[in-house]
Amino acid sequence: MTRFDPSDALYVDLYQLTMAQAYLRSGQIAEATFSLFVRNLPPDRGFLLFAGLEDVLKYLEELRFTSGDLDYLRSTGQFGDDFIEYLARFRFTGSVRAMDEGTAFFANEPMIEVTAPVIEGQIVETFLINQVNMASLFATKAARVVKAAGGTGVADFAARRTHGTDAGNKFARSSYIGGFVGTSNVGAGARYGISTIGTMAHSFITSFDSELTAFRAYADAFPDSATLLVDTYDTVNGIEAAVTVAHELESRGSRLVGIRLDSGDIDFLSRIARRMLDDASLGYVQIVASGGLDEFSIEALAKSGAPIGAYGVGTLAGVSADAPWSDAAYKQVTYDGRPVAKFSPGKATFPGPKQVWRCFDAGNGMVAHDHLTSADADSPEPNATTLLHVVMRGGTVTGDLLSLGQVRDRARMELGRLPESVLELTRPTSVPVRVSDELLASSPDREKI
Amino acid sequence: MTRFDPSDALYVDLYQLTMAQAYLRSGQIAEATFSLFVRNLPPDRGFLLFAGLEDVLKYLEELRFTSGDLDYLRSTGQFGDDFIEYLARFRFTGSVRAMDEGTAFFANEPMIEVTAPVIEGQIVETFLINQVNMASLFATKAARVVKAAGGTGVADFAARRTHGTDAGNKFARSSYIGGFVGTSNVGAGARYGISTIGTMAHSFITSFDSELTAFRAYADAFPDSATLLVDTYDTVNGIEAAVTVAHELESRGSRLVGIRLDSGDIDFLSRIARRMLDDASLGYVQIVASGGLDEFSIEALAKSGAPIGAYGVGTLAGVSADAPWSDAAYKQVTYDGRPVAKFSPGKATFPGPKQVWRCFDAGNGMVAHDHLTSADADSPEPNATTLLHVVMRGGTVTGDLLSLGQVRDRARMELGRLPESVLELTRPTSVPVRVSDELLASSPDREKI
Fold first, then answer.
1. Which CATH architecture has domain A27-61+93-138+330-448?
2. ∠B340-A224-B71 over CA atoms, to 5°?
3. Contact residues on chain B for A192, CB-CB shorter than 8 A
4. Which residue of A has its CA nearest to B292?
5. What is the nearest CA distance from A54 to chain B, expressed in angstroms?
6. Do B11 and A168 touch (CB under 8 A)?
7. Which of A52, A399, B46, B103 supports an S-S bond with A135, CB 3.0-4.6 Å?
């Protein structure tokens, strides 16, 4: 079984620690800057929504090696007492510049830049890439689903199929940023203050002698918040039983909230259900659709006008199934004030700290293009807006971060200013990122970038 | 920011708790059995390796609602004092039958069956599906990579690109079960006792004035365990610098372990590197390849005879990129001793607890077919082996579970007994699962299954 529970400080690739020991021993401990960016957008993505900063900053503020962590590292025989003592005193003391969460970003644009003594900046790489890559993929996937749903509410039902519990919790948060209205994940609701949403499972129905008995038991327990799952046996019979219970609730002054369809031809069944409910004077009972939905199937339902009042979306969004990874990278761009870069084919980087500038079309207010410049460059054109600003100094968060609600508003505003062609679900365009002449000249190997 | 840290007990879909309250209030609290299985194998999977049981059993043993959890639930206004008091005393008291971790399984075969008072069996659904689905997908993906590598060692470099830290840790464990030799994830090494493996990052090289200076600093810190990354600037120059450092280490009685190629035409560069190393009498220095590798690219390298001594595999394995999800389900199959099932189109289930029997070809010892029967059925044929056995009674693990090393051995044995056609990386066959006549007759809707 598990030996002990290491802290998040050990969520680190071994080489971060071996390099750190080598840095320490060679006296190579000056300040360095690292940029977190994606080299290319994933397939069928014209943008990504930045998310994960809150967790990154919390991690940086709280990062400590516990005595258990240190005992383990000592036991491996790879690390000397000098280095273990260094880790025992370790605090992240650096500064961070970042985009606001909810900001749309494009290839090669840093979302985060970390400046710190090189060991501190290096050790945090694994966690930072992990969290930002995941959260940004999730927020973006959710925004696609919300776009497809065209105004109908979408809820997160992914907790059972995400890759682990961290992903399940972060998907709830990121999908809320991307525009979902709530989550089935109770812990995420508690953690982030997101509305929790739920109906019932097939097993609840099968526990009882009949579907009608099960519906009545549930409606007794939740007379004002019940959504009944109608497809366990025969969907039309299930809808009829739900109508019966809805009328029983009315006679007691309550209202059935909805019915849920989780299988079969959702488009066809939703129309039958709507007509049966309307014929029974239950126009207020909404139809919830779920079961293997994603932005593509929801777009088809929305375009055909299926009378669906809410979607529950799980697996395919919760693993970002069509784009489960990005090539997010965290690269050193200065050491001791000197701009540095790698030249590896296909992976070359621009040296030095950066600024990202966003420029809008004066006519329609939409995003026109971005500029990527060195951090200290002048504004490349009038009315360009800077996206990177200081969020941490000396290892402490500076000022207030956006609340989760503000991040969600920010994302909605960002999406509203992206051209339709960038938002397309398949083969979108992206926003041009103009690299400054200064950066191009400083890149030792620009044709490989 | 985060409000509070809920326990794993709140890693639960809201409907588990609302159904539980409805069960409690309607007195519907008899014992039920639930089966965890996948309805269909993912694309290009002829089998899945079962993993995640250890975490499931630990969760079941330790499952408690904390006072913080209960305060949150009370604050939602959805739950009555009766139910909150029930949760305050909640313990999982049921029994579990399961396959051994490392066992190969196929569509419709339960890997886990839980028998418990219905509320207890229901509340654990979200966590159980989440952990087993993830771990089994990961172990299977790793087994595919190991097969492709054909005897060359493969290490887990995925920590930065998995969906969160839980996935990163579980990928380290599951990939070890699937045959990986170690992980770069230090915390997973500590947690599971897996060997940790690491080289160096490009940023280490770019911190120094020259590649040679960086290599020397690293070799000074790790004279007997250094693997030098040679592609930061020009790969051939990098190999030359590594040769210089290897000879310097020899003069001090140490040996360079390896060099790492992380970009470019790995096949071509590995041959150049091997010749340069051999020409310098450094036949013992191994070549490590990494950078966007998966079972398909590794199979190509192995088939072409590229002289690679070890692979580091990250992103594409760590998100199981070609199959990031399965349709794992957890379905009620009995209530109060009565077999139950759902009939939803495409999602119908066989009622009752099950047994899975494995039958081998008497000639070559390979897996021939499985039988799926009711739990109390007689052996369907001579020499059939049962795969489900009791691992928990009264909420307590019975006896010793397999150690992680034993699980890894079990997986290797299992893979060795699967026909080559089942192991194919693309368009594999699967193993026939013969459903007993008794089960077929008991399914109310067999043609939909």
1. Alpha-Beta Barrel (3.20)
2. 85
3. 2-3
4. A327
5. 7
6. yes
7. A52
